[in-house]
Design brief:
The complex is a heterodimer.
Chain A (H helix, E strand, L loop, with lengths): L2 E6 L7 E4 L5 H15 L7 E4 L6 E6 L6 H12 L16 E2 L3 E5 L8 H7 L11 H12 L4 E6 L6 E7 L4 E6 L6 H5 L3 E7 L1 H12 L7 H19 L8 E7 L12 E8 L9 E2 L6 E3 L13 E10 L2 E10 L4 H9 L1 E2 L8 H8 L9 H33 L1
Parallel strand pairs in A: 4-9, 4-10, 6-9, 10-11
Antiparallel strand pairs in A: 1-2, 1-3, 5-6, 7-8, 11-12, 12-16, 13-17, 14-15, 15-16
Helix pairs in contact in A: 2-10, 6-7
Chain B lengths: L1 H19 L7 H6 L2 H7 L15 H21 L4 H27 L3 H8 L12
Classes of the chains: A alpha+beta, B mainly alpha.
Amino acid sequence: MAVSTIYSTQSLNSTHFLTSSSSSSTSKHVFFYRRNQSQTNRRFNTTIITCAQQQTIVIGLAADSGCGKSTFMRRLTSVFGGAAEPPRGGNPDSNTLISDTTTVICLDDYHSLDRTGRKEKGVTALDPRANDFDLMYEQVKALKSGVAVEKPIYNHVTGLLDAPELIQPPKILVIEGLHPMFDERVRSLLDFSIYLDISNEVKFAWKIQRDMAERGHSLESIKASIEARKPDFDAFIDPQKQYADAVIEVLPTQLIPDDNEGKVLRVRLIMKEGVKYFSPVYLFDEGSTISWIPCGRKLTCSYPGIKFNYEPDSYFDNEVSILEMDGQFDRLDELIYVESHLSNLSSKFYGEVTQQMLKHADFPGSNNGTGLFQTIVGLKIRDLYEQLIANKATAPAETAKA
Amino acid sequence: MATIATTSLSMATQRAIVTSENRPVRLAGPVRLNNPWNLASRTTNRMVSFNPVKATPEGGISDIVEKSIKDAQETCAGDPVSGECVAAWDEVEELSAAASHARDKKKAGGSDPLEEYCKDNPETDECRTYDN
């Protein structure tokens, strides 16, 4: 199938797929949908029309269940522009989210064993034996090279594999789930990867918050579930963080002695050095070690205050920069003051981080380092995408001239 | 000027394809006027009776979560380190996450059924908005 692509130089606008006459009616439906989207969002300056293969960049996001992947995805797609929604007219239990630029697919869709199958064999969803990495690799590879795929749907309510859905190659493909960096072949397809590393104390606190109101749950059941899954988590999920280009670590605060409530958090953004198109954010002086308490004479903060730390370090034998925030924002001026002291944010205008945080003030973590660092990573990925596209856009033009 | 010319070229290409399939052509005007963020304030009480079909009611999944916890406790009573026990608690986690997502979805989208409907059908009469 020939795929013609029209894309704009101002990069983050919608792509139109013009499929040839032999294409199925399903793909035409997708085309309609994209056209409507573009009409509300047409702001581009110049348009290049090429009939070449679609450029898709692939981002991997790994984290355990209940560790904030969905919130991160909402922040990420918001930075890219346009709300992400489930595919229209599709399976209401689909795990996919689509926006103008981005498609997010959930890797649970590549479960090879459904809920009954896992129970019979006595394996968890965390176990590689319950997942089909061959299919995952084939389909991510196809999407990356501009070919649409029929992806299975794992239904989280029924625990069954539903009829597949058609996924068109987007500009930005995000694969999120338990194992985006587990399989070496899948890992090689990633242009950027992120791991959300939630400490045990915080994981427990978050799950209590999420589940205590649920009928049947108790502190014991929440604890039992975390403990039962832990060996598989340690064996198959946790080791993936060594491959991540950015890790967001979430730990209990050190500002309140012996705090175990999990309300105030210490969050660390670990950024790998030397990654193409990704230059880490820094505080005051790149490569130095800095400890900064913004609260004082110029800015008054409420208890327990805010503390930042920035330093070069090593992480699994990789050279990294670590930016750490302990505490939480209680007022807008605290957030904007902090933003104005961070460098290399890849924002398009002064205050963009603050604007994004305010826009989603209702999301969990909007007042602490989780929301701040997720937003920053979103800006860095947007920047990475724009650099990649700018580099690739010059190549086909030169070929055409020759 | 060059910008406008290229833009309309791409529009023309799209329309040609749409009409060749004998599908109705939607013009830009009404679609562009239907900004979803305008709908909330203007159309609060219209078509309240319209209810989009939800895949699974929230009550349904709560029952499944409750049952999965009982199952896990029973399975683990005999052998707390068996694969079956671990798989049963993993199922509890999966369902608890699904229940939490269902609650979020309900909070985010289910509040205004018309808004949901107009997202999918912006061209219909009941979804039109006018600037004056």
